[in-house]
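Board notes (copied after class):
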Amino acid sequence: MFRKLLSKSLLCGALGVFTVLTILPQQAEAGPVRVRFTPLFGAPFTDLDWGGVVDISDGTCTNTGTVFNLIGPCADQFSFLSATLTLTDMSNMSIKESIALDPSSSQDQFVQRTGLTPETFQGAFATPFEPVKGTIDAAKVDGEHVWFSLVLLGGDNVQLYWFNRNPGSYFESSSLYSACGKPGDNIVNQFDIRCGSSNNTAIAIFQPVPEPSTYALLAAGLGAIGFVARRRARHG
């Protein structure tokens, strides 16, 4: 009798996980798309790895090609939902800082795609996000804080900018970002600022944004298998 119940429980657990794995690609075909990136930083922050995610939504827009946030048939629906920057200590791979950026501060945003699913996204573009003050040691760049801004360059390239003080109203200046777009430590007398960008341009990976319900289903399926495994171990 117990063996029959065990077999039935294992079957239910397996079916539960199979159901979850079946649902995942179906949910991935709709909803927001996540841009993920994880490159090294480079000078002057050679001890840091940087990465993060940017979530993009197109509402119900089904257009392909170049989809803009300001013009065209997707203008009222397309938006960048959130952006998070993560700085990691390369010596022990611990997260030193996680910074939330304001994607609405980026004026021009668009994606190129051949379809609606994440794997059909060919690139994303965004003008610089407004810089946000970090808390990492700024002594090496002669500042009280380091301010960070993210730029999506189009295609699958992402760049991280830093400043030794808040660039304020200059953050949208193309000349400032051109001067600071060089890796390393740059002094820009015109803006009385030190700045630079990451040595490495991140390669963006486009993924579906996981649905909370998906996580719950996956946890339930795995929990069923774990429960059966524990029962089996106890009864040998």
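Comment from the instructor: Residues 42 and 183 are 8 Å apart (CA to CA). The chain has a mean pLDDT of 78.
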